[in-house]
Amino acid sequence: MKRTETRQVKVGNLEIGHNNHVIIQSMCNIETKKADEVVKQILNLEKMGCELIRVSCMDMEDAKAIKDIKKQIHIPLVADIHFDYRLALACIDAGADKIRLNPGNIGARENVEKVVKACKEKHIPIRIGINGGSLEKDIHEKYGRPTAQGMIESAKRHVQILEDLDFYDTVLSFKSSDPLLCIEAYRFAAQTFDYPLHLGVTEAGTTMTSAIKSSLALGTLLNEGIGNTIRISVNGAPEKEIPIVKELLKDCKLIQNVPNLIACPTCGRTQWDMEPAVNEIESYLQTVNKDVTVAIMGCAVNGPGEAKHADIAIAGGKKEGLLIKKGEIIEKIPQDKIVARLKEEIDKF
Asked: What does pTM read for this prediction?
């Protein structure tokens, strides 16, 4: 799918925007100063498919830890800064590949100029993050509630500060916990700015609510060609985020080498213990980087038909299942051997 063309911004070895692929992003939930733990989490996220990682920077100890973290990871790192421009300078000096801040929130213009100068010298981009729930007081009073118009007005203020300083390596985001407001704001942004857009629904809640809200908002935008990087925000461990975003990008035909799992909802016709098998294979497929379609079906009514269109499939029977590959029945497998055989066939595919 052709993306909405934007400026191209380089973050480490990644090229964001223009017509490049959508970059998968996440954020650590560990204090950055705990460098060893942060590195362990980032390396795990890398294996799952994360391409860009953000860490919080609350104090100088966090900022200084970035240097050690950068030596041990393989993907670009974004430093999240609020209010204190000195933290931004320290993160830049420590090797951050990108800074997330709102230039209007770090004090006097001279402070902004110092950050922009440092970013220019090291070719580090800045992400301006607009949140519908924390707009400037005058904008909130003007519109009375979070609106797309207010979010765009806020972004224009911050963008203007950077453009006045001849800085254009900028990425924008327009997040809200309301998925419909996200859609409206990002559509408006795509018409207003030529900067790359980072997609996200903020404060989206649990795995279930986040998956639903994010699929509604971000799936809609992605299918319209809007968005250049993406994060699915889930309460808890960031490892929960990556499978959701990969599934979303796969279903929008924007990513390859992601397995496709088909599984029926089960009904009274199902005569084998199917749910545990589906759950185990789903977890297993999160570690697989292949364009393979796996179908796990409960009975002989719909099972064989669906299975014929999958690369590898099980059509369940009474405490057993038929193993089907590329539409051809290979063997009959007892229920307790199904998961192991499926994993074998996935590995061989």
From this structure: 0.91
